[in-house]
Each structure stands twice: as C-alpha cells, then as structure tokens.
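Protocol step 4 of 5: obtain the predicted structure for the target chain.
Materials: sequence only (see below). No template structures provided, no constraints applied. The aim of this step is simply to have a reference model before the mutagenesis design in step 5. Sequence pasted as it appears in the construct record:
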Amino acid sequence: MNNLQSTKLKILLIEDEALIREGLRSLLEKENFVKEIHEASNAKEFAEKIKKGMDLVLMDFRLPDTNGIDLLTALKKEAIYPRVIVLTGLEGTELLMNLLQCGVHGIVYKLDGYSEILKTIKGVLEKGSYFSPKILNIIQTNAHRWDHVPPVVLSLPERDLLKAIASGLTTKEIASVLKMSDSTTETYRIRLIKKMGVQNTAGLIAYAYRNGIL
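Step 4 output (structure tokens):
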C-alpha cells in the first residue's frame, strides 16, 4: 500500500449517523484511491461487511450497540487485519490512549473535517500509520503513564452503576435500582473511582462523559 496512485481500496465506513455516513461516502467516492465503499451502522452490519475483505476501516468510536475498542478486538480475530482509522468527536486523553494501545493506525477528530481525514488516510497508506501533531502531542505528554491508563470500556454492572450515579440518584436509590445493599453500592462506587483514576464522584462523571462511556 505504499504507492497511493496505484492503490485501489475497499473501504468500510462505520458510522451510525446516516447524514455523516452519506456525506463522507460522497466525498470519498471522488478520490482516485477508492475501489469500493461499504457501510455499517452497528455491530451486526460490521460483522457482515468485514468478511468481504476490507483494506481500510474508517470507524466512529461510539455506536448504539458497541464501541471502537470492542470492534478493534473483533478485527484482530480476522484473517486479514485492515488499516484502521478512528473518527471521534470525543477528546478524552484516556480514550485516545486506549485506542493507541489497541493498535489503530490513525485517529481523527470529527471537528477537524474532511481535509484531516484525507490527510490521515494518505499518511496511513504511505507510512503505515499517521497521527496529527495534536495526537502526537498527547502521546508524548502521556508516554510516562502508557501502561497505567484507566480503561474506557466498562463491564455492564459498572456501566449501570455509572449511569445511576450520573442521573443524580442517592446511594440508597441506586441500591434499590441495582438490587444490592447500600454498603455494597458504596463499595462498588469507591472501586469504580479507583479504577478510573479520579478523586471523587464528580471526577468519575466527568471522566465518563469525556471518554464516551456515558
């Protein structure tokens, strides 16, 4: 894939918002390196389309029934591992570090527009991976904690607890909703705070929104 002019790619575009997906497709179809564009809006469609042997995956991080981390894990089980560029509207440092640890080849902020997407695609094709100066700065700034970055994917019980906390319920109300004792609920809340590496409940909620957990 080093010669961009002679490369014709089968691209899988994973995005649940139809308007964004259709707009990006119409722009990509004009590029001379595109052979085919396939679309997916959820985990089921992704599983079906990836079997067609894609060269490049453009992936939104947040989908209704899954997320980029889970899709990347599934991709690694495929016989052929395509290049992957994640498109995200989230700017949580922990999210970016988790994606980098999963082996993505590029990350683009949606607000940076199509020109940055195109630049990243070309960089990935020519060099194997490409990260903008903004992403490189995050990598350099956080290199010292590479092995200690909290996860951005939680278990279902942890996610349910976090949603209950974010909704403003008291410990007693959360315990009732989740069908556990008050003391167990508080213990789980403290564990979640430690797991996320924050100082308090407010920090926990902020972390969750910043990294697309909620």
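Step 4 remarks: Confidence is low (pLDDT under 50) at residues 1-5. The first strand starts at residue 9 and ends at 14.
Proceed to step 5.
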